[in-house]
Description:
This protein is mainly beta.
Amino acid sequence: VQLQAYGGGLVQAGGSLRLSCAASGRTFSSYFMAWFRQAPGKEREFVAGISRSGTITYYADFVKGRFTISRDNARNTVFLQMNNLKPEDTAVYSCAATSTVVTRLPGSYDYWGQGTLVTVSS
């Protein structure tokens, strides 16, 4: 599957952005999807994940209550709604897909989209 993420940009602290990740192929619904981010000089970290049906979601503690992950299997798209953004949320955000177990480990993902840059100014 090929993934393409978009929707990043520059936003002031407290603002919102919605990221989208469009997937090619007919088997999108068979993949657990996730968003990761990587800030300059830091390791890539898990942000949020969503089950194949979209009924179960997972979040990193630092985004709970602010970010919401969702998916539309009919449109082969996963979303990340980001509210109340903080300067420390500045990073390149990437979507990823895995056909195996639910995981927060980047190395377990089979497919990655190119990142989209989110910059939050103070």
